[in-house]
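Kindly inspect this chain:
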Amino acid sequence: MTDNPTWTIREAGADDAPALALIGAATFLETFAGILEGDAIVGHCAAQHNAAAYTAYLAAGARAWIAEAQPGGAPIGFALVGKPDLAAALDGDIELKRIYSLSRFHGSGLGAALMKRALEAAHGHRRLLLGVYARNERALAFYRKQGFADLGTRQFNVGGKLYDDLVLARPLAA
């Protein structure tokens, strides 16, 4: 467990799927409201950020870490790593599927602490990959600070509309 005066991090289990879904939907909405169409965001969150989706990730071998506000333990962020489904993936790669935190906790060190957990889980893999909306400058700056470099692009479907993502990679020590 990682401790901070305002939050803690622990590994998430199947019982945490509803909290992961709540954080996923809340942060997706918070990040993309006013950028993407509202109906597309709602539809995406209903399909991709529900407890069943996170239960399926964990059942398939993904690992997650959940951040909780202190005091009280309210969920405020998480990281999720698992088998890559990116076209740029090669044997030995692993994907950071999600790293989300509520904006109130940006700048608190939470993102770096969640990334540390993802990197620890990625140990023994060749590279850690991720996809990020190409216009999400704040996230891109964070990832580049964490040692990620551009690898390629992909199209990401949100509510039936395609958006450009960058695919980033960070080499890992074997």
Residues 92 and 126 are 5 Å apart (CA to CA).
